[in-house]
Structure formats: C-alpha cells, structure tokens
Amino acid sequence: MTEKKDIKSMTFTELTKELSDFGEKPFRARQMYDWMHKKLASSFEEMTNLSKDFREKCRERYTYTTLEAVRVQESKADGTKKFLFRLMDGNLVESVWMRYRHGNSVCISSQVGCRMGCRFCASALNGLERSLTASEMLEQIYAITRLTGERVSNVVVMGMGEPLDNYDNLVRFLRLLTDENGLNIGQRSVTVSTCGLVPGMRRLAGEGLQITLALSLHAATDEKRRSLMPVANQYSIQELMEACSYYFEKTGRRITFEYSLVRGENDSKEDARMLALLAKPLCCHVNLIPVNPIKERKYVQSDRASVEAFKNILEKNKVNVTVRREMGRDIDGACGQLRRRYQEG
Ligand code: SAH
User: Fold this and answer.
1) Are strands 103-107 and 68-74 parallel, antiparallel or unpaired?
2) Residue 250 near residue 208, CB atoms below 8 Å
3) Where exactly are the transmembrane stretches of this chain (predicted)?
4) Is 218 marked as a binding-site residue?
5) Which of 129, 225, 290, 314 holds its CA 20 to 30 A away from the CA of 42?
C-alpha cells in the first residue's frame, strides 16, 4: 500500500490537479479547500456539501491532519493560553495564544524538539525528534481558532524548533497561511524567528514574501554568542549581519533582533554598546527579553535595573528597542517547558 497523501498540506493548485486526476470536477477542489482552510473543518465528515461517496474515497486516499489538545493552561495574569497538542503519531508540541490590543497572536512550533542546542532553551534539551509538516503547523492555528472561537490576526513561528531547519515545509506553510483562499493572514502579520541559519535566511529573502524575519542574536560578539548558542560556531556575526542586510534589500522588511538578557552573561553596558554598533547600520528593531530560567540550566534573569540601563544605551544610540512583555510566565510560558513537564509526569 502506498502512503496516504497529506491533503491539508496541498496548495490550491496542487489540490485541483490531485482531484482532477481522480476525475473530479474543478469545483470540488474549491469546495474542499474552503472546508479545510476557511471553515476549518476537523474531518471529511463535516464537509456536508460533498457526497458521502466522495468523502469515503477521500478517507481512503488522504490523511486529514488534526491535533488533539491534551492540555490547555490559561494565565490568570494576562489571559494567555498555552496549548499542548498531540500529533497523530503521538508526538507533542506546544503553541501559545496571546491577546494584544491589535489582535490575537499565536506562537507556533515548527519541529518536535530542536537540534540547535541553545543553552538556555528547554526545547533543545532532548534534541530533534522530527520536523512538522505544513498541515501540522497550520493546524495549530486552526485548532486554536476553533477552541477560542476568535480570529487569529498575527502568527509568530517562535515555538519549539528551528523553522529554517525545516525550510520547505515552512515556506509551504507560509503560503497556505497567507493564501487569500484560506485564512488569509496578512504576510506582514507573520514573523519567523531563526537562530541564524545563514543560507536559509538568504533563501527566504528570495521567496517574494513580506513576512518579518527575527534573528535570535543574544550576543554581540562571536565568542559570547558561541558560549550561548552552538550554531554560532557555524556562522559568524559578520555573516549574519550581511544576511540581514540582504534580507532587507530584497524584501524591504525591517529585521528584528531578539536578545534574551542573561544576568552576568550578556547584559553589561559594554554588551549594550556592542549591540548598538551592530543594530544601527541595519536600522533594525531590537527586542529585549529577560531570559526565562529553566530548571535544567543555571541561567538567571537580568535584574530590572540592568535591563533598563541596557535599553537606555540602545536608545541613546538611536536604536529602536522594546522590552518584551512577559506573557504567561505563570503557565510555563517559556519555550518547551509545558511539554517537558507533561512528559516528566
Ligand atoms: N529556533 C528559533 C525559534 C524558536 S525560539 C530561534 O532560535 O529563533 C524563539 C525565541 O525564544 C528565540 O529568540 C530563542 O532564543 C528564545 N528563547 C528560547 N529559550 C528561551 C528562554 N529560556 N528565555 C528567553 N528566551 C528564550
């Protein structure tokens, strides 16, 4: 038996071809795509304007990706909801729903685990299990929309995993997510965060997408960066800055630098001055994040005064900077922690 095809990962063009190869009329593809990506049906059975016979055939030929919410935690402080989803093969991923004044934002995972090994990150502790398919990335947003009953307007790919280590599925996901025949999320409302895989960043610049690229920088010198992120042994900050300028040139989209402040590691005034030197010529935006401590590592958050001083130095150097509000700290908001706790029992 040949493996069943993943129908929810097909683009509209692919779906049209697929169904016409089976002798179906073109309008079938339109109906089906609508059910999957607009009405967010959770099974073929729900597609009531398709004949029973056709739905039965679909069940035989295709997998219909769905996720099961095994745990939902809501923050009492800010209403943030964290979802632990079980994939159809039993693997677990996390997604987070946040309500902002400008709309609802969902943070999704792109892989089960991660192989980048950033020292402060809980998702990296057990390495990579596997990458997610496009439909598994989409379904995190669809399932959350169904469960909350509210429209999602922003998507950030900042959950578990390194999105550019799952490049083809990521780009497929981005096209489906922003397709006007589907959920139609604005490209400018989508952010992809990377630990800095230079070839992927350059390739993404050429996809003709208007999404925001966020670079997890976390240090302003190669030496410091290497002590926090093994990937820094592969690509230097110089190469990263060149890839960022290239991305900006090609897309016109301003880059975001993410910088998690770790006490005594990367939060000194000198660190801030070095970061300003990198940020200024790129006219990028810097997002400071007090590191979320994980119990497996010794890293500690910078104190309020150091965060303030760090921010002031950047501002004095005319760098656009914000300190990220910590959403959902009371519900294991930091990457990968809910899944870990669940697995530990
Ligand atoms: N792999 C991608 C996206 C997932 S991580 C990337 O590296 O960008 C999303 C962001 O959370 C990254 O900036 C990452 O460095 C940061 N992060 C991971 N663990 C963290 C922690 N414990 N505290 C603060 N930020 C963390």
Assistant:
1) unpaired
2) no
3) none
4) yes
5) 129
Does ligand 1 have an atom closer than 6 angstroms to the CB of 258? yes
Of 89, 197, 111, residue with least CA distance to 157: 111
Give the Å distance between the CA of 163 and the centre of ligand 1: 12
Whether 194 is in the pocket of ligand 1, judged by its Cβ within 6 Å, is yes
How far does Cα 342 stand from its chain's mean position? 21
Tokens of 313: 């130095």
Does the Cβ of 120 fall within 6 Å of ligand 1?
Answer: yes
With 60 as the cut, is the pLDDT of residue 47 above it?
yes
Answer for the pair 239, 283: CB distance below 8 angstroms, yes or no: no
d(C-alpha 42, C-alpha 308), whole Å: 47
Give the model's confidence band at 343: pLDDT under 50 very low, under 70 low, under 90 confident, else very high.
confident
Average per-residue pLDDT for the chain? 94
Residue in 105, 110, 158 to alter for ligand 1 test, most ligand atoms within 8 A of Cβ: 158
Which amino acids are annotated catalytic? Answer: 94, 335
pLDDT tens-digit map of 106-151: 999 999 999 999 999 988 899 999 999 999 999 999 999 999 999 9
Q: What is the DSSP letter of 224?
A: H
> Where do the DSSP E strands lie in the chain?
5-6, 62-63, 68-74, 81-86, 92-100, 103-107, 111-113, 128-131, 154-157, 190-194, 212-216, 256-261, 285-290, 320-323
Per-residue pLDDT at 217 exceeds 70: yes
DSSP code for 4: P
Q: Name the residue with tokens 């093969």.
A: 89
